[in-house]
Fold this sequence. Notes:
Blueprint: H1 2-13, E1 19-27, H2 30-47, E2 51-59, H3 66-77, E3 81-87, H4 94-104, E4 113-119, H5 124-127, H6 129-141, E5 145-151, H7 166-181
Parallel strand pairs: 1-2, 1-3, 3-4, 4-5
Amino acid sequence: MKNSIAAEKVSSSTWDPKFPFDLVVAYEDTGTRNHALHLYDSLAQQLLDDYDFHCSWWKFDHLANPVLQQEAADSAVDANMVILSIRAHGEIPPVQKAWVEDWITRRQHRKAALVVMIADTTQPERDAAPALAYLRNAARIGGMDFFLHGFELPMGGVRSSLAPSPERVASIAPLMHGLLYHKSPVPRWGINE
């Protein structure tokens, strides 16, 4: 009996806790959700040894419900990363804007990232310029790093399998590299800043 207690003490002293990582994903439809899922899977594979992932998923259509919108906003306030997976639109729809404006103003400028994934475009800067300007400004207001990734959805709708194709893996690789190796500017702390 003494041997089992000693073994428990040894194993518990070598346990290293993982850092919490809160992720919020908001998406427009099945195709944009699937692309965000591939990014989530890639992040989890890269960071799972060091981080304890907690992820919440929100479809924009559901944010028309005030209760769900509030829950999604509360999740985003404390998130380490918010991923928006949307289609290329000129403007952000009102429901999405209301949600973003709710949580972005309540952030306490903790280290975080806003990742915008825009479907149906290889040139998101051109195809979604007003939406991107709005989201870049929101990231600035919230003190968040901003990442942008444009991607094309497969022709003929959504693939029946969630298994990533080689093309999708290749399309996410640059975004993953940017997320994992991004160097933030050193925060300046001073009495007059």
